Amino acid sequence: MTTPALLEKTPRTTAVNPVNSKNAQYLSETLPEPGDGDSKNSGAAVTSGDHSLASIYRFKGSYNILIPIRFKDRVRWLLKLPTNGCHQQDEDSAKALTSEALTTNFICHNPSVPAIRIYSFDSIPNNPVNCPNILMEKLGGKSLYYDWYHKSPAAQDRFREQALANIAKAMVQLCTFTFSSTGALQLDDDGRIKVGPCRKVDHFAAHDRLRLGQEATTRFSQQGPFSNPRDYFLTSLNREDPSILPHQQQGHRKLLRLCID
Asked: Is 242 helix (H, G, I), strand (E, B) or coil?
């Protein structure tokens, strides 16, 4: 992963998703070159093949391992890997990773919406990293979680207000992207963007495994696309067996259905 050959190849290579080869063509035509339009990310290390590493470390989230890569000329990239590696990388997982790359790049084409740039992705493990991955721009800053809880009371209130205002502003900007149905962005056989099924964490499957005394590993399900919000919210509720829930939770589910209807 740290070899110059990989780092030299990756920024200019877009992997072909076995599900739809149009993905590679679309991204190869639209993905920016590393450093384009940003003096902070420009320089010889990206454009001339001089990939002298300064540091590599990693941190882990709920579903991904993130590996920031910093070069000696201060160029920063981020390599994103699924936490389960290759063990659960099936066709649905490949579609989800490709959709993430397509969606991010689609948003990035609107200059009014701040979005990271993706340099390459590979939805299958047959690559130099031996794992599905997304190589993207590394943004500066700290985790929202850290400052949310680790400031003085007065500073904390100001920070939270500003953070929520920024999130609300981003949500308003994202409202400019509308489709006739809800799901995940995909490309059809003609290379046009469409909305397809989305991959969601199946919490009910995990709860069922716990109830049966099995390990509660993360499970996913393909859902949608949905033509209206009601179907979207009811799909998750309909996957649950209310008869196995405590009486209080059964009442909660009935109240949720009343609110949705």
From this structure: helix
Distance CA 110, CA 89 (A): 31
8-state DSSP, 212: T
Q: Which residues contact 244 (CB under 8 A, 6 or more apart)?
A: 211
Q: Give bridge partners of residue 122 from the DSSP assignment.
A: 133
Give the bridge partners for 223, in sequence order: 198
Query: pLDDT of 197-210, one tens digit each?
Result: 998 888 777 777 77
103-130: pLDDT as tens digits: 988 888 777 777 788 999 998 888 888 8
The CA–CA distances, whole Å, from 228 to 175, 181, 193, 199 equal 16, 7, 19, 17
Could you tell me the pTM of the whole model? 0.69
Name the average pLDDT for the chain.
75
CA distance 168 to 112: 14
**DSSP state, 72?**
T
Q: What Rg value do the Cα atoms of the chain yield, rounded?
A: 21
Strand, coil or helix: what is 162? helix
Name the residue with tokens 């709920």.
62
